[in-house]
Write a structure and sequence with these properties.
Strand content: 35-45%
Number of helices: 8
Structural class: mainly beta
Number of strands: 63
């Protein structure tokens, strides 16, 4: 495989300003269907939804922000569960709200993946937001949102009946100079507010006018030459009623919840404390500061009411102190106990709570789970997008030719050219984009619209750059979360409102494109219990996250967060449709059933007759892709091969026309996959095919599996320690963050970067900061089996490992061992962690000249055709995250 390592694709990342969990603590009686979610708000207005998934940490949804928007506070409102007379439990519905230092509160529709509503009133900018605790058995009054403003007002917003509207100002301070910057609740009607005038105020909002119950004063900040007021950036209420505050002096203060007097003052940080979190039982407190440190506090032994610092670490893992910690939230449930924090570093950091001091932290990827790059493989074009801007690049020479022609060094900058650029008008950001393989058609979607463009070249024009000409697009009325173009550029598919799969034909005649009227593809009806449908996040799990066409453009597959896979096939007009299978998925959700639009007289899409036989995946899929080659190990002829990879590192290969698992997948179960792949913490983001080889990549790894070979002989023993195939294995003594501290971290990404040469020609060298486990290689590894000598692996450079792997694959038939030796030496799997955080990998097709040259060199294109890819790296230090 020939790789272009590129870092020229702009993808700015934004600081984390807010973090919130749907449940801070789940009771032991909570059902498994009540899955927690983590919401992360960024300075550019983006909101991300993560599923902790027992430590797998899957970014399920990323809702882009609009122009000049920011998310500076997040609040989940989860209604209490209701038990019916028959014992059925309806889980409380969850809603997500945000503020952005404006006068508005925003609610999100997670089922449709977009903003649902804005609400505002005649008041100043909102700086803090909280929600009243759930009502007790005696108090049945509805909960309200309580907001504090920059002009010192405390506001009530009604959320009753699924609505959101401003109700009234319950507290008005006499002076507009007092800013309410933080909020917490002692009880439903007792609000604790941290202010900018060195005070913490406790209000009783049970009455219409509200009353001031207590006012606690911190005095003045004497750390500088001139005394200043202290800003209370964070307040937190413990289960026993005590109040914890963090302020601009770096002090953590403990206040008695009954007398409202200060019991302890701890100098926890050298700069402002910006956020606080606590364990569910109140036995641990965590603070984050502008100095970049995260400090853990626990009660002092044999000193009731006293607290001590027990552990701290820096947010960035270094000692430069440039990355502040602005937001954090804790989550505890069976098997998990973590604190998630974030700030200007832009990537979420998961720290153990119960296992503090015994387990490592974990850095979650700062790049999106869905890649923001696509390629027009036949035109040697690559497209990238972020915000409302889209760029198209051209790479002139293949990687092999570029290296062959280079005399001293390779100048990647001269091998690329920015050929087109597009800025989408309006406030909405781009959610998805696609480009045809010939590079002539581009489709861009936002949350409100879908636009199509043609890339036109003008031979007589003096400018070498093509132009993007807008095409006529049928009115859709909605935007899209995903959009794809078929390989033959005759079909366009997109996902509306989270789970509606739409498709439209693309007709090309005399150089002109015409997009036909779209129609809806009905998904299989799934049994969704009313307890799920009417509670929690509703139909959110049915949101489609994966869309893929087969290489011949005659089959389409989609998958949702619940693990359901739906497939359709392209049929001729005269083919008979299976009417009995055309049952609409929305019928189970209570939504209105829409009839399909009038279809053209040409080819039409109909459901795969065997679609219902494809079983539900055990967890959400992160990759769904059709193979570009048939495997000799499978008996089925004329069938497709559909690959699915889940968040739990399970790999399934389906024969979708038969509705069954492929032979390879039956023989190579989860526990036969290489352990290096199974223990990789980062999730897969995408795949690239090379004949029967599949190259799987994530944010920190590149992994190859040869699906034409079995990973373990069929007569080999099963998994060790009596673990059965298909069962889940938990990492011992982990609570959802990193591994145990007494074991070396295998898949670390903390490395030193050494730059050599001028700024435009930087060469990067990776130096591992920790030693690896002896049983697993941190560098490149190979799945070549050699019973005669298991210790012949030598330390080589990253390029040498990749070249050695390529030589073994290409020249195996010519080895001294003969055909038998070649079969023994052919790699079954291979992996490396040498690359910086990977934004994405896209393939390019070889030119006819290169194909002829490969044939002359004896390279078999039937087995392992030559593969050229562009790998885009976005290291966090190179992305330069900004707090604004």
């Amino acid at each position: 495989m020939d790789i272009h390592r590129c870092r020229f694709v702009p993808y700015p990342v934004s600081a984390i300003n807010a973090i919130a969990f749907t449940h801070s603590n789940l009771p032991k009686s909570a059902k498994k269907s009540q899955k927690p979610r983590l919401a992360i708000g960024r300075a550019n207005g983006d909101v991300e939804i993560w599923n902790p998934n027992n430590g797998a940490w899957h970014q399920e949804l990323a809702m882009p922000g609009g122009k000049d928007r920011s998310v500076d506070g997040l609040v989940w409102v989860t209604d209490p569960d209701e038990e019916m007379q028959d014992g059925t439990i309806f889980h409380g519905k969850s809603r997500l709200f945000s503020i952005g230092y404006t006068t508005a509160i925003t609610e999100y529709d997670l089922e449709k993946g977009r903003v649902k509503k804005h609400a505002s009133g005649q008041h100043g900018d909102i700086w803090c937001l909280g929600v009243q605790p759930p009502p007790t058995n005696k108090d049945k009054t509805p909960r309200k949102l309580v907001a504090g403003t920059v002009d010192g007002n405390l506001l009530l917003y009604s959320i009753e009946g699924g609505d959101l509207e401003f109700e009234r100002a319950v507290i008005r301070t006499p002076s507009n100079k007092t800013k309410m910057v933080s909020i917490a609740f002692q009880s439903k009607n007792c609000v604790v507010v941290g202010c900018s005038d060195s005070t913490i105020r406790v209000y009783d909002i049970s009455r219409r006018g509200g009353t001031l119950r207590a006012q606690m004063t911190l005095g003045s900040d004497h750390s500088s030459s001139s005394s200043k007021t202290i800003i209370v950036w964070a307040v937190k209420c413990l289960p026993n009623g005590d109040i914890v505050s963090g302020d601009s002096t770096g002090h953590l203060c403990i206040w008695d919840g009954r007398t409202y007097t200060q019991t302890q003052r701890i100098q926890g940080h050298t700069q402002d404390i910006l956020c606080l979190a606590a364990s569910a039982d109140g036995s641990q407190i965590v603070s984050g500061s502008m100095d970049g440190r995260i400090v853990f506090y626990e009660p002092t032994p044999r000193q009731p009411g006293r607290w001590s610092k027990v552990f701290h670490r820096r947010h960035d893992g270094h000692h430069d102190g440039h990355h502040d910690v602005k937001a954090m939230a804790s989550y505890e449930a069976k098997g998990m106990s973590v604190v998630v924090c974030g700030g200007s570093k832009a990537n979420p950091v998961v720290l153990p709570l119960r296992g503090v001091g015994k387990e490592n932290h974990r850095n979650l990827p700062h790049l999106p789970q869905t890649t923001n790059i696509r390629s027009a493989s036949r035109a040697r074009l690559m497209m990238s997008w972020w915000g409302n801007e889209l760029r198209i690049w051209e790479l002139h020479k293949p990687a092999t030719k570029l290296l062959a022609d280079a005399t001293t060094h390779v100048d990647m900058k001269k091998n690329r050219r920015l050929v087109a650029q597009l800025v989408v008008k309006g406030e909405s950001s781009i959610t998805s984009a696609a480009i045809s393989e010939d590079g002539n058609l581009v489709v861009v979607s936002t949350t409100s619209d879908i636009k199509a463009f043609r890339l036109e070249y003008h031979p007589k024009s003096s400018s070498p750059h093509p132009e993007l000409k807008k095409l006529s697009m049928p009115a859709t009325g909605n935007g899209a979360s995903k959009v794809e173009i078929s390989p033959d550029a005759k079909w366009m598919c997109w996902v509306e409102e989270g789970r509606k799969v739409m498709i439209a034909g693309i007709n090309k005649s005399e150089g002109r494109y015409e997009i036909s009227k779209p129609y809806k593809l009905n998904r299989l009806a799934r049994r969704v219990p009313k307890t799920v449908l009417l509670g929690g996040l509703g139909m959110y799990d049915r949101n489609v996250t994966q869309v893929t066409f087969s290489p011949d453009s005659k089959m389409l597959a989609v998958a949702d967060l619940a693990g359901f896979v739906d497939t359709w096939v392209l049929r001729d007009p005269g083919a008979k449709s299976d009417a009995s299978s055309e049952v609409e998925e929305e019928s189970s959700s209570g939504d209105s059933s829409d009839e399909e639009a009038d279809q053209t007289d040409g080819e039409q899409w109909t459901r795969n007759p065997k679609a219902a036989l494809i079983f539900r995946l055990p967890s959400a899929p992160v990759v769904l892709s059709f193979s570009k080659a048939c495997l000799p190990t499978d008996k089925e002829d004329g069938d497709y091969l559909l690959l699915a990879i889940t968040t739990l590192k399970q790999i399934f290969l389906f024969n979708p026309l038969h509705g069954s698992l492929a032979d390879w997948s039956r023989r190579n179960t989860y526990w036969k996959l290489p352990e290096t792949f199974r223990i990789t913490r980062d999730l897969a983001k995408g795949v690239v095919w090379q004949g029967p080889r599949v190259w799987i990549y994530g944010s920190s790894f590149l992994f190859m599996l040869d699906l034409s070979q079995d990973l373990v002989p069929e007569s080999a023993d099963g998994p060790k320690d009596g673990v059965q195939s298909g069962s889940k294995r938990k990492r011992d003594h982990e609570h959802g963050a990193g591994g145990r501290m007494d074991k070396q971290q295998v898949l670390t990404t903390d490395r030193v970067k050494v730059a050599t040469g001028p700024p435009e020609e930087v060469a990067w060298m990776d130096v591992d900061m920790v030693e690896a486990d002896d049983s697993i290689s941190v560098g490149a590894s190979s799945g070549i089996e050699d019973d005669e000598d298991d210790d012949d692996d030598e330390d080589e450079t990253d390029g040498g490992e990749l070249q050695r792997f390529r030589d073994e694959a290409v020249n195996g038939d010519d080895s001294a061992h003969g055909k038998a030796g070649a079969t023994r030496r052919r790699a079954k799997w291979w992996n490396t962690y040498q690359y910086q955080p990977i934004l994405g990998i896209v393939p390019f097709q070889k030119t006819s000249e290169e194909q002829e040259q490969n044939q002359e060199n004896g390279v078999s294109e039937e087995k392992y055709p030559p593969l050229e890819v562009v790998l885009v790296e976005r290291p966090i230090w190179d992305a330069d995250p900004s707090p604004h």
